[in-house]
Fold each of these.
Amino acid sequence: MNAVEKKSGRDLSERLNTGGFRFTPQRQQVYDVLLHRHDHPTAEEVFIRSKRAMPDISMATVYNCLDALVQCGLVRLVQLERGATRYCPNMEEHCHYYCDACGTVFDVALAAGAAVGPRPRGFQVDHYEIAVHGLCAECAGKRKK
Amino acid sequence: MNAVEKKSGRDLSERLNTGGFRFTPQRQQVYDVLLHRHDHPTAEEVFIRSKRAMPDISMATVYNCLDALVQCGLVRLVQLERGATRYCPNMEEHCHYYCDACGTVFDVALAAGAAVGPRPRGFQVDHYEIAVHGLCAECAGKRKK
DNA sequence: CTAGGTGCAAAAGGTTTGCGGTTAA
DNA sequence: TTAACCGCAAACCTTTTGCACCTAG
């Protein structure tokens, strides 16, 4: 059993229970999809991939599963474009480099405790998100021509 | 004439023309709404405020105007929540502190050229967005009780 | 056993598009 | 003069909700 399988197996069940959620095959399926390829899919993409292994799964269930995973701290929301939330199973501190041309997302680790400047008086920080927009090497090359 | 009025007057016309857009009363109105109160309104909120001075303006026009302003580099998109794009007329380098409880957004200046770590090979950076989530002083206080 | 989860279908936002009439340059 | 823009309404896409049935604990 490799690391990914372990993480999506019994560990998932425990994390869900701790958060007050039940373990279900659908939640495992959705989590597996996210762990299998760290490409920050949208809910729609998670739905399509999940259907391959579980043809009867519904969109409502996918949203429900994703929300449960987010609330358990196993997955985070990423807002990079207008009108499409993406999901990221990487819970390490990192930022997202997003190619505005092809939509590819690159995870880049941050130095631990990276500071983001002074904060408003009394503001209680929960987490932060850093998104860098631009062109990936491939798209930048194409554009020059 | 104060600084804000100047910025939204002849200057706006020039910036629009430079970007290949026409100056229209609707674009001025929408820009005025954003400059008047820097509270990062959604398109819907911009529409409501614009209607007070210009009752016949339509939602489609508001989106059109906002897009034109974004393309001219006068306004930027901000994605802080699921399903609601906000608009920010502050083009200085800054990050957004967002209260997950009441939705208030605080702008905080960044040190010029603040680094966000190493970047993927060949990635051509256009701009970056830093969003800090948590609770504002007021909401954090309420939650303790 | 039963609270919570699932699938379905309909509704609810938010955003975009098509079109006939209007206007900035 | 005319390409760009406006207002309106319909379409579109993502996300949420209500409900009857099912199932994990």
Amino acid sequence: MTNKEVAKILRNVAASYAIKDERKFRFQIMAYQRAADTIEHQSSEIRELYEENKLDMVPGVGSSIKSHLQELFKTGKVKHFDWVTKGVPKSLFPLLDIPTFGPKKAYRIVAELGLKDPENVINDVEKLAKKGKIASLPGFGEKSEKDILRAISEFRQKKGKTQRMVLPYAFDLAEKVVNYVKQSEAVIKAYPLGSLRRMMATVGDIDIAVATKNPIAVIKHFIAYPYKDRVIEEGSTTASILVSSGRQIDLMTQPPQSFGSLLQHFTGSKNHNIHLRDYALKKGISLSEYGIKKKVESGKLKVESFDTEEKFYNAIGMDWIPPELREDTGEVELAIQHKLPNLVELSDIKGDLHIHSDYPIEPSHDLGHDSMEQLLEKARKLNYEYLGFSEHNPSVSKHTEEKVYSILARRKEKIEQFKSNNKDVRVINLLEVDILACGHLSLNEKALSTLDAAIVAIHSSFSMDKKKMTKRIIEGLSNSKARILGHPTGRLLNQRSSFDFDFDEILDFCKKRSIALEINAWPTRLDLPDTMVRQAIQNGVKLIINTDSHAVWQMNLMKFGVAVARRGWAVKNDILNTMHYNEFIKWLKG
DNA sequence: GCCGTTTTCGGCCCGACTGTTTTCAGTCG
């Protein structure tokens, strides 16, 4: 059962409570919605957390929801959920997936029109709307009927937030729109915020904050964006549009003197903001994008403004919190105690160890596009101290063992030349070696002896059971040349979920052998995922951030790997490739 | 139903926008 499916079940419970008695159950509704939100956006699988007995780690999951989830995973259903959803037409649940449909609207439509078939309810609503049957219902009208038809159509085309973007795509889109927004003279500052600023692995929509003294002019300019599909909403301080690629862009404005609180509000996350505001309430102050509302002596409410985020956080009584940490997983408490970690930064990185050149190694998988010389030149520009070449191992099915060895021996000669000629960027002889289904590495000892060390990784037979996969990985890591576990979970964002393995066991083994886990910065990997990075660090396991570049330009993707490390609370010491060359080599050679 | 730097009981974030309402409900972030 995926996180999305679990979240959907919890949302259905919240909706059922809302239909039965919204006032009576208002706090249950909030609790179930919050749990659904956090589970849906959790970067580790909730099912695995259940198996590892770590459901408590999920914010918003308390004793009650935890026991319901345990029942769900054990038996496939939950008695309490059946009780709550009893009497609520099942046909309304599919409608909740469509933006602009909430529990009330969905319920009134299926109840008034007698729609009972959950399989076809979306089609049924569409047909009836086309016949004009919705506009005549109480509380609905011509406009809302048209809006329903459009919402269904956009939902089918996966427009809006139904499909999440990988980070670089979101970056490009945000940059385009921000550049356009800045063309308005009324714009003083404009930044992309939301999950993009928090550097989440995937981004649902683009949020832009604008400092201006003339919000009406800014919004008028914004909604005239040339690649706009339609305006979703347009108010006096905020607006939302859908662009032709189907993505949603939200814009919020504040005057410059209260821009700091807008940055804070619009960066989120939602749970972070709720925690912050809850904490503030207990101090008798109230937070919003406008600033901090306090009672003054006359008994009247007064809003204090903040032009920077730092001042805003400080005024609540805590340190400024890096956006990557704002997920309500302990950062607020530490900010109050002035004990936030000093997160690793891009400028700390001194080398990239996972680089595929075009060296003719006749690999099992894909070859790089650029030469070792070109890649080294790029490393110089990035001010790296070292660079590790790590093509895929030569194909073992197409070559004899002797042939594999001779390819690697020749490659070693070339790399040795670099080693003696290059003193500014030191070269390291690595290779990305497959861990075969049986647990053996795809190269024999003689072939491995040509290398300084190996990045080992899974590239086949992903659907093994958990025990076998864990054993396979540990066997692969047992070879003394294996120093780095490459893209450890094997996930591909929006394509393939991670394979099943016992992470705790891998962590134990890596800790014992001083083996590093890779944070692969490739945008559809971002593997290890951030929550597992944090777990690795808590267990004293070190990490290496690599780009897995197959071309020169891809070496710029390092920032996305650093972002994952920061979201996993990594400081400089946790990341091995922040070390100088001599220290790094010392670790690498074991 | 969750949660804890005045709490294990008694609170629960804050505001914008839209449509169909003549004063607000529903949805969203």
